[in-house]
Design a protein that fits this description.
Its EC number is 3.1.3.25. By secondary structure, the protein is of the alpha+beta class. 34% of the residues lie in helices and 30% in strands. Helix 6 (186-194) packs parallel to helix 7 (207-217).
Amino acid sequence: MDVKEIDQTVSAWLEELGEHTRGLIHEHLTVKTKEGNERNLVTNVDVANQKWLLAKIQSLDPNARVIHEEGDSNRPTSTDGDIWYIDPIDGTMNFVHEHVDFAIMMALYRDGKPVLGWILDVMNQRLVHGGPEYGAWVDDQRLESPEDVNLEHAVMLLSGRRLVAGYPGYREVADRALAFRVLGSSGISFSRVILGQASGYYSKLEPWDFAPGTAIAAALNLAVTNLDGQPLNMLLSNSVLIATQSAHRDLIKMFKD
């Protein structure tokens, strides 16, 4: 199966799953907390969506390994071969309490390199997808690279929790950027940057949070690295920075200074 066929297949999965998830938004949800953290939620929809997607991947690519959010106890220790990433509901707090600004995300990497990523904005029924050899798309419209702006002209998206808690760098980014916003979903945040609606995003993320957006960004003139300007570790959590090239240079310099 070539890249276009994989994209069409997974896009169809996400269209079906998105419709199903929208139908559950006002139904009774079973909501639990993870690791005793009342802000880290998981619902029955997260678990069911992941189970459904795992079955789909297994039918398409029986030898593939998967890194996923819920119950991720057997994470691969190398990036060899095909690895799929799944985030069944990204922005679960938004899903439970706001019913907007949450995503279903997937990505396919091969030997550590991005092949394709998918970010479905569930409530807006908008799919951002693509990869370095395939191009970046919103639904069936091909995307061009966003305008390259520097940090002083950038709208930056940030982790609100880390900003309020005073984690290093967040206040400095907020002060130097033209403006900052907090969305509560890495997928929605990556999508805003990819679509040119923001110029950068900075947060501490797990692989399933950043793999889809990183794959799509590789088709555009966007930089995605850790705070040292180095490639992301696709097996572990990272402090992730996606931005236009100029804003990214400004930010890396700021973090080093």
